[in-house]
Amino acid sequence: MNIIEELKNIDPKTPGSWPWLIKILAFVAMFVVIVAAGAVFDWQDEWANLQSSRQEEQKLRDTFLAKKREAINLDIIKKQLIDTQQSFGALLKQLPSKSEMDALLTDINQAGLGRGLQFDLFRPGPEVATGVFTEQPITIKVTGNYDDLGKFASDISQLPRIVTLNDISVNPTSGGVLSLDATAKTYRYLDEDELAAQKRTAKAGARK
């Protein structure tokens, strides 16, 4: 008798009389059904929790990598800040103090006279405060030949203190020489007393 015939002859009401092969097959079938039901009704929540944990793990991994990149960039930024501070300190040393301004004006004047130029105008203007610095404009007008005017401009750029020539205009004169009109600008840093006075003025203006 084969398995199909045995299945046809079994009585569902008397499982105890089933052949052992049928009993084993029935047990395996019930086991599979129970496991499948457990997976659907019980393990489903655990599966959802597992997926949620995996997503959270990925978020934490991404956050870690972002923080790691920021840490690497922070070292670069710190180095750039140090380099900037050093450059700023070097530029600051090129700015005269208040007591050195008169000597600097004399240096500008001597730079022109040393090239044989004639000063028709040398008029320092009022200082203009710009943050922790002041800008000192000087209106100048000198006459001389082309080469001497060029050398004068080069000498100005090579002064130990920062001086720039702005609004330059060169025109011929009736005497066969050239006339250079320009605004020389130099800068100085404010001393502690001036900075304190500037802060007091700013506070007084804010109260109004």
UniProtKB/TrEMBL annotation:
Spans traversing the lipid bilayer: 20-41
Keywords tagged on the record: Membrane, Transmembrane, Transmembrane helix
InterPro entries: PilO, Transl_elong_EF1B/ribsomal_bS6
Single GO BP term: type IV pilus-dependent motility
Pfam families assigned: PilO
Gene3D superfamilies linked to this entry: 3.30.70.60, Helix hairpin bin
Protein name: Pilus assembly protein PilO
